[in-house]
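Quick start: what a row looks like.
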Amino acid sequence: MPLATTKQILEEAQKKGYGVGAYNVNNMEQIQAIMEAAEETKSPVIIQASRGALKYANFTYLGYLMKAAVIEHPNIPVAMHLDHGNSLESAIKAIDLGFTSVMIDGSLMEDGKTPSDYAYNVKVTKSVVDYAHARGVSVEAEIGTLGGIEDGHGADEIHLTDPEEAKRFVEETGVDSLAIAIGTSHGAYKFAGASNLAFDVLKEIRSLIKIPIVLHGASSVPKELIDAVNKYGGKMPGASGVPMKELQESIELGVSKINVDTDGRLAITAAIRKVFAETPEKFDPREYFAPAREALKQVIIGKMKDFGTAGHAGDYTVLSLEEMKKAY
């Protein structure tokens, strides 16, 4: 089975009303855990790499590890996605490496921190759409800004997406999916108190645009993972995320792609800390990476079931990039 595009994966999810997790990766063990979870639950999956991850692991190393996922799991629809690309150049680099989907985040300037204006967002997004669609590659964009900083990316303040502006933006750029801001934020400290997502904004946007909607900053930061990290020497007081019931409500209201990064980091960190605390004599990386990989796998299995992704891997035949070119 060839690599899938997020356009196809998300449109199929949209038809049947389930969500698809997009899971950030930095190394081999994360990719293996996510793919094993997808295989076990028979779920389509989006594996994504941020610019920070690609800098850490090296673009080529990580790109080919992601491609290995397709070879090892030929019955699972898999999309390779660039998360938070900041320019046409970053998108071109990913596409040249074989990514089937790219995000261009023109809601922020190229530094990834300073909010841009609408005209800048349209201009940079349209340049990526024109380049990517000519090659069959899907494009995700963002309008509105999320709070929090993760992987060096994010803004200090949340600016909720304006529904009418979102409609105009989709019409002017031709993007395949749209990330919106409804109150989520990057990182492990999303809310000072209870979460308060703007479902009214989501409902209005859903009524105005037809393409799949994306929710960033959507890790749940489960208490049991925070407790496990802290039990073995961590210091994460006050960490909080988006409750699963709210993520499920957002899926019911029209969200098709849910980005998850922090929860995976927590699972890995808790597992490694446990090995070091209970067996300090161990020094073979395989002896702590293996339980970390298993811990992440179990977290992803839970997400795939909770998002409704499980069981949908065999629903459709994946279209190649050559076939997707014709769709544009």
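That is the whole record. The radius of gyration is 19 Å. Residues 148-155, 189-193 have pLDDT under 50 and may be disordered.
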